[in-house]
């Protein structure tokens, strides 16, 4: 889902915090620090999350021309995950258990033995599976302190909020009716009056 192509489904955010002096180089270094890294099966990983170039999901080398357009910072979160099909894995595990029982002259195996066979089989099969790749673009207007993350998926937005703060040291607050009123610059009295407004029907009730 992207800013440059695809369906324009976004979640809007207000950005809270001060952008540091010399932020261009600071943010390039931060993007590099939290760049995407391939899944390391040797560490029993089955997913990975990190920043890539908005123009190329395989590009993790950042420079100003790739990231900054005027007052806009643009980058992409790439999420890779290896998922074994549940039904297919169940069949492979049954076959592995049968082979184990035949080899060791057993009719059935203990739960610890089955768990060990399961873990070994998972590691073997993951090496044969390509990870599913998903990308989610960020468009951030630094001057206006507003950002758009190109998905409405709840889990990905939660991950984005955490990753944005880790990377840039700023907090992203989802834009909603409450936060929009909060950012209108109203005095305390008018702000409280706005919050007390009850919803009203804009159409006549059916007769």
What descriptors fit this protein?
alpha+beta; 7 helices; 7 strands; 207 residues; 20% strand; 7-stranded antiparallel sheet; 2 domains; 38% helix
Short synopsis of the structure:
The protein is 38% helix and 20% strand.
Instruction: State the helical fraction.
Output: 25-40%
Approximate shape: extended
Average residue pLDDT: 88
Structural class: alpha+beta
How many discrete domains?
A: 2
How far from one another are the termini? 44 Å
- The counted number of beta strands is 7
**Which sheet architecture does the biggest sheet show?**
7 strands, antiparallel
**Strand coverage percent:** 15-25%
Q: Low-confidence parts, pLDDT < 50 over ≥5 residues?
A: none
Counting DSSP H or I runs of 4 or more residues, the number of helices is 7
Overall radius of gyration: 24 Å
Q: H/E order of the elements?
A: EHEHEEHHEEHEHH
List the helices and strands and how they pair.
Blueprint: E1 11-16, H1 23-33, E2 47-52, H2 64-67, E3 68-69, E4 72-81, H3 86-104, H4 111-126, E5 132-141, E6 146-149, H5 154-168, E7 171-174, H6 177-182, H7 188-195
Antiparallel strand pairs: 1-6, 1-7, 2-4, 3-4, 4-5, 5-6
Helix pairs in contact: 3-4
